[in-house]
Amino acid sequence: MAEPTVHDLPAEADALQAVELRRDSIGDGDVLEPHRHAYHELIWVHDGHGRHLIDGEVVEFGPRTITLIPKGQVHQFKEAENVTGLVVRFGDEWLTGSRRWLFSGGSCTALSVPPEDSPRFEALLDLLRAEIERPAGPESAELRRHLLTSVLLWAQRWREAQLEGRGASGTDVDLHRQFQELLERDFATSHEAGHYAAELGTTTGTLSRVLTRLTGRSTKQLIMDRVNLEAVRLLRFSDLSIKEIAARLGFGDQFAFSKAFKRQRGEAPLDFRERATSLERAG
After folding, report:
1. Comparing 223 with 158, which gets the higher pLDDT?
2. Global pTM value
3. DSSP string covering the chain
């Protein structure tokens, strides 16, 4: 099985796109094959509903929702009914500071936008699209960067509000955000909680308590969840051998990888690959 096609932005530096989304109907017969993005994607849905498949998992969306799809995730726009909105695509160079946390590469859900904020947020997106479509001038790059940063800050506000609604403090949310960024950088080389606690200047106990409060998962569980997510991608969407996948994900040998994968998923890597392939053919 070949790895999924990689979709990229135009070759010019600092490429940024805002594309109108208008789909009366998308069904199983006329969707793109699963593919990866070499860029990050923000999908704003004003009206309509449907579902994505992101890393093979169903993500439902409806009116006034944002779906944030990090670079590298395997994506398929599976179904849509009467959908209108906007898709914003951009590379790593447009992400600075805490905004990187929003695109950490982990599991994905549609983020609901409060009804009272929706008109203002949509107006901000319209400004961004208009600036992108305007012929470039001396101030264009700075304006586009500020507008995109504002869009992402609003998304970050709503994401943090979700976490704080679970009883987290601002300090807890910040630690969680820093952990997510560090995990995305190091998951393929460091599987131990102590590494992440040391890098973040805290204790393993404090880090695990905060993460468990916010996510229901301990530090070690979140690390292995991220490793497992990448393993699932590679097993499902590539023809790499088990040995090659084990090496790519930082395991000493394929047996250690197979043991860890079975502990997480309840089945051996080859069994998972065969079952996933059979389901794809059947679907």
Report:
1. 223
2. 0.69
3. -PPPEEE---SSTT-EEEEEEEEEEE-GGGPPPPEEESSEEEEEEEEEEEEEEETTEEEEE-TTEEEEE-TT-EEEEEEEEEEEEEEEEE-GGG--GGGGGGG-SS---EEEPPTTTHHHHHHHHHHHHHHHHSPP-TTHHHHHHHHHHHHHHHHHHHHHHHHHTTT--HHHHHHHHHHHHHHHHHTTT---HHHHHHHHTS-HHHHHHHHHHHHS--HHHHHHHHHHHHHHHHHHH----HHHHHHHTT-SSHHHHHHHHHHHHSS-HHHHHHHHHHHHHH-
